[in-house]
């Protein structure tokens, strides 16, 4: 059925051109057979029928208040009939039919991805009732916290939380080519397709609030407004028509030959600018949609292609916006795993974002949590409860800090970390250090944006200046505006917009006014607030910043091709018109020439459907190696925390019982986990990426591997010198230098890999893996 409908659609699209071609060719056959009156009759009828169509087009244009090249087409056909240049009229008819058919095809091809988004929109859901029975309900009946079942091959109806493991095809929403594995508790985006067995989920909101609903709304209006370059084409037509008529009149008046005026009109039909620019711009809209960024209209796409200044929010945009544990510090004699277990047990019932980070950290370390009792939460202060009979309080600490805790607070401030203090039975027992990590693709995205033409990057944030400066240095921002209110963001956007076309990227409600004030406002729809997405000119439907760079590169590519096609087409048309006015180009030859020009510019405009993106595709199997290496980085960060804690302990005392055991424990993890990870990268991942063109990057990282091995061996050499289970005092200076150096090298190495390899690999090629680290 679908195939038959497709053929009928294509037949309706192509039959007028087929009929025109058959008529012109049949007339040619009669001409060469010596039946010239019959040939003229075929061509005259073809010209007359096409004239009726162009008159209808002209009337429709006039009703819309537009005067386009339909006037020239109509005059060309009329004049060809008047001077009995029937072949020229038939070729003009064939030219108009070809242009119209190719334009229809190009528009359908360019908007195919946008229509695919609309066609795949879910319309119903399977909901579990209070008795556990399933019932199929309309999508608008789904409410927050409803329990839903998604069967194999079905579309996830609304955003929600997975209750079971799930395998999803996210290609339509994110561009991810490989199925994505999700665990219970992961957030799921609507519009993705279940590529595995059925699974349960809990709705996070209504259908109207879901990710896919927002995408569909924007896709529906993607062509509602014309791009400035397309509107320029309409204005150009208003000037081109008088120019063409004047040139045709001059040619007729000077030479006295009406056939020259006919030739000018024939060559001027139709205008390549009107064909090339809409096709290229709509192609760009379609491609950005396929890459996970919905641009509201062609005007926004063009501005995105001309922008030179980028203003970007920090929290949730350049950073992940989801805190994660950076380490655990305990009072002397304490156990960090036990402290984290107690804190996470109490925080299980808290809805606070920091509580979720602590619980995730405990889960990553496979700690056994218990259900707390006597739980009390004080907004803005923290939460307390009993765990295994002990009173545990997690949150702020207002009393004076002991020396060890004061040192930890000072170090946390230097590192830009948040502190969550943990007390047990009234005594301060430790602190959980949290950070909002910079997205691993942030620096790579900034580099790509600079290469695409952005000359200025300004980071605006309400955070402290010290923290903002650290993030700015990591991503490479030119300027930082800290402690910035929503009103100040708007003021800064307007100030920057006075100097260049400006793009503002944000995700929160407080970013909405600035997004509306910018030339192009881009909202992170996957994780951001609805208010931000509602006022934005473009929405990133995936939680990946590198897709912004994709969209900018596509926009510049589409705009460049549109301008190139229009300039080349119009240049050739004007030259042909001058030649026709001078009598060097008869109507029939001019008609064939203009046919070739129009076909050329349309085909050139279709190039906007591909190309423009930097980077090369990953070799086969490299993505799986990247995924495996990235997944192991979470365990490596846990080793980093243990390495730092061991070094801090030895820095305070070196000859105490237990120091050697702590050192031996962390050394064993380095041998069993870190070195095999580095060896696997060296032997399998780096060669695969070098084949993609990343040989220079992998060579630098290989040298770091050698340094990691050297430092691990040096730790082992210190352990070989242990006697009677104790470290010697004279070992302390070199051992501390080795441990702190190893921690710094490992931390930097992990960041380099995530920025230069993982993020770059997913950003440059076609549909790489999803953002695994942010």
Short description:
By secondary structure, this protein is of the alpha+beta class.
Q: Which key features would you list for this structure?
A:
seven-stranded mixed β-sheet; six-stranded antiparallel β-sheet; 774 residues; disordered C terminus; alpha+beta; single chain
How many β strands by DSSP?
22
Backbone shape: elongated
Structural Rg: 33 Å
The share of residues in helices is 55-70%
Give the integer mean of the pLDDT values. 80
What's the main sheet like?
7 strands, mixed
Structural class: alpha+beta
Beta-strand fraction estimate: 5-15%
Write the layout of secondary structure elements.
Layout: H1 2-32, H2 36-63, H3 70-82, H4 86-110, H5 112-119, E1 124-128, E2 134-138, E3 147-150, E4 160-162, E5 166-169, H6 171-174, E6 180-182, E7 187-188, E8 193-194, E9 199-203, H7 211-220, H8 228-255, H9 258-267, H10 272-290, E10 293-295, H11 298-306, E11 309-313, H12 314-318, E12 324-330, H13 336-347, H14 353-364, E13 373-378, E14 382-387, E15 390-395, H15 403-415, E16 418-424, E17 427-435, H16 442-452, E18 456-460, H17 465-475, E19 479-481, H18 486-497, E20 502-506, H19 512-517, E21 520-524, H20 530-535, E22 538-540, H21 546-581, H22 587-605, H23 622-652, H24 659-720, H25 732-764
Parallel strand pairs: 11-18, 11-20, 18-19, 20-21, 21-22
Antiparallel strand pairs: 1-2, 1-3, 3-9, 4-7, 4-9, 5-6, 5-8, 10-22, 12-17, 13-14, 14-15, 15-16, 16-17
């Amino acid at each position: 059925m679908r195939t038959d409908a497709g053929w009928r659609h294509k037949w309706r699209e192509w039959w007028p051109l087929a009929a025109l071609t058959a008529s012109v060719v049949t007339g040619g056959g009669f001409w060469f057979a010596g039946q010239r009156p019959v040939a003229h009759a075929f061509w005259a009828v073809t010209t007359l029928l096409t004239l009726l169509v162009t008159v209808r087009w002209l009337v429709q244009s006039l009703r819309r208040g537009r005067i386009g090249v339909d006037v020239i087409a109509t005059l060309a056909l009329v004049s060809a009939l008047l001077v009995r240049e029937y072949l020229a009229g038939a070729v003009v008819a064939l030219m108009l039919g070809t242009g119209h058919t190719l334009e229809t095809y190009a528009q359908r091809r360019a908007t195919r991805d946008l229509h695919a988004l609309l066609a795949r929109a879910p319309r119903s859901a399977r909901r579990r009732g209070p008795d556990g029975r399933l019932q199929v309900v309309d999508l608008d009946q789904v409410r927050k916290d409803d329990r839903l079942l998604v069967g194999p091959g079905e579309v996830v109806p609304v955003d929600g939380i997975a209750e079971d493991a799930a395998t999803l095809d996210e290609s339509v929403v994110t561009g991810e080519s490989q199925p994505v594995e999700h665990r219970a508790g992961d957030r799921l985006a609507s519009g993705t397709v279940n590529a595995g067995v059925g699974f349960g989920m809990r709705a996070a909101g209504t259908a109207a609030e879901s990710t896919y609903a927002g995408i569909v709304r924007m896709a529906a209006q993607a062509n509602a407004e014309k791009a400035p370059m397309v509107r320029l084409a309409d204005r150009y037509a208003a000037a081109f028509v008088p120019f063409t008529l004047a040139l045709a009149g001059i040619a007729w008046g000077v030479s006295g030959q009406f056939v020259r005026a006919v030739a000018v009109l024939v060559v001027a039909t139709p205008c390549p600018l009107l064909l090339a620019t809409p096709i290229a711009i709509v192609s760009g809209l379609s491609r950005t949609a396929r890459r996970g960024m919905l641009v509201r209209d062609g005007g926004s796409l063009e501005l995105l292609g001309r922008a030179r200044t980028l203003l970007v929010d920090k929290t949730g945009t350049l950073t992940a916006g989801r805190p994660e544990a950076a380490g655990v510090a305990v009072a002397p004699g304490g156990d960090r795993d036990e402290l984290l277990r107690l804190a996470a047990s109490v925080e299980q019932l808290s809805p606070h974002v920091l509580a979720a980070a602590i619980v995730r950290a405990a889960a990553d370390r496979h700690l056994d949590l218990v259900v707390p009792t006597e739980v009390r939460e004080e907004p803005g202060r923290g939460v307390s409860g009993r765990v295994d009979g002990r009173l545990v309080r997690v949150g702020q600490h207002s009393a004076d800090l002991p020396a060890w805790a004061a040192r930890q607070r000072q170090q946390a401030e230097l590192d830009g970390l948040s502190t969550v203090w943990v007390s047990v039975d009234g005594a301060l027992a430790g602190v959980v250090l949290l950070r909002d990590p910079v997205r691993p693709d942030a620096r790579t995205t900034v580099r790509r944006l600079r290469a695409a033409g952005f000359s200025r990057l300004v980071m605006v944030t309400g955070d402290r200046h010290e923290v903002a400066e650290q993030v700015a240095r990591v991503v490479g921002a030119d300027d930082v505006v800290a402690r910035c209110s929503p009103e100040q963001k708007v003021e800064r956007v307007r100030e920057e917009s006075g100097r260049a076309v400006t793009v503002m990227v944000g995700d929160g409600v407080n970013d909405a006014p600035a997004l509306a004030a910018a030339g192009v406002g881009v909202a992170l729809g996957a994780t951001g607030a609805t208010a931000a997405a509602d006022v934005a000119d473009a929405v990133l439907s995936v939680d990946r910043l590198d897709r912004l760079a994709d969209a900018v590169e596509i926009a510049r590519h589409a705009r460049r091709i549109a301008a190139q096609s229009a300039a080349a087409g119009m240049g050739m048309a004007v030259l042909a018109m001058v030649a026709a006015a001078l009598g060097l180009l008869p109507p029939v030859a001019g008609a064939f020439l203009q046919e070739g020009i129009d076909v050329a510019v349309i085909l050139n405009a279709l190039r906007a459907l591909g190309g423009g993106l930097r980077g090369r595709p990953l070799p086969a199997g490299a993505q799986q190696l990247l995924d495996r290496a990235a997944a192991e980085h979470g365990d490596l960060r846990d080793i980093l925390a243990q390495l730092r804690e061991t070094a801090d302990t030895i820095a305070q005392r070196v000859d105490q019982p237990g120091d050697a055991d702590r050192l031996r424990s962390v050394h064993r993890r380095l041998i069993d986990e870190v070195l095999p990870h580095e060896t696997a990268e060296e032997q399998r991942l780096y060669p695969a990426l070098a084949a993609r063109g990343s040989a220079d990057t992998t060579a630098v990282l290989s040298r770091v591997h050698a340094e990691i091995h050297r430092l691990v061996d040096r730790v082992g050499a210190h352990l070989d010198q242990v006697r009677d289970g104790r470290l010697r005092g004279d070992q302390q200076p070199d051992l501390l230098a080795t441990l702190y150096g190893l921690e710094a090298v490992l931390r930097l190495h992990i960041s380099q890999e995530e920025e230069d390899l993982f993020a770059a690999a997913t950003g440059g090629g076609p549909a790489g893996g999803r953002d695994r680290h942010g």
